[in-house]
Specification:
CATH class of the largest domain: Alpha Beta
Number of domains: 2
Number of strands: 11
Number of helices: 10
Order of helices and strands: EEEHEHHHEEEHHHHHEEHEE
Strand content: 15-25%
Length: about 290
Amino acid sequence: MKIRVPATSANLGPGFDSCGIALSMYLSVEILEDTEEWEIIHSLGEDIPSDKSNLLIQTALDVAPSLTPKKLKMTSTIPLTRGLGSSSSVIVAGIELANRLGNLNLSQNKKVEIATRIEGHPDNVAPAICGDFVVACHFSEKTENSVSHVKHYFPECDIIAFIPNTELLTSESRGVLPESFSYKEAVEASAIANVMIAAVLNGNLPLAGKMMQEDRWHEKYRGKFVPHLAAIRQVCKEEAAYGCFLSGAGPTVLILAPEEKTETIMKLLHALDSRAQVEHLSIDREGVQVF
């Protein structure tokens, strides 16, 4: 049995801690055999545990504490600490591992609820579970239905990821955000997010991209960590891309582009920083899959 979970991009500009899309990069977990102790075979780096202290196993045992140990093989094309949901993909894989091995028959809604409790926010985990474009909210009150989400079709377009060769921890980038907004500022920021979502639902990518670049919640505060964002915005403007935005907390920037513009934009992005990874991606429509 193999579990596959897509990468995700959260926020989409003004959809802060609420909106996300699933992307065509993947974490895969293969169940191999029974063992005395949990063991994970991977080549993701020495900092990633290979025993039950791994987030994958911790999550699975949180959901189903009585699981018997297995040997697992974990591979991933999702870059770590780059704002593409690498930790969320592990959490979602852990939930699915518990669901399958423990015969829990968890509903999609329940998976989103559990993943949000563990991760803290639904914007990355919900699209990793559901696929496509997801809008979600999480109420801080400890109620049974504290998480709500809606999946919708994201309009067809090319997605280009500019992935710098530098890490950015979410905890670090969250530390620069303001503790409060004025009522007027919050209304404006919320209105921009509402129009962005409505434009996506209506298939109006030019308007959606414009609103994504008008975020008031987080991008201007995180800009000092992402010095290439302004240069990428200029490339998008000159090449008539729909828009670009920080992926999650950054430092990755995603660009939404018409197909005929992709090759040129990718060449220009390579020229900005030869050390950066520039990837041509697409929307993953399915979310977590088991084969």
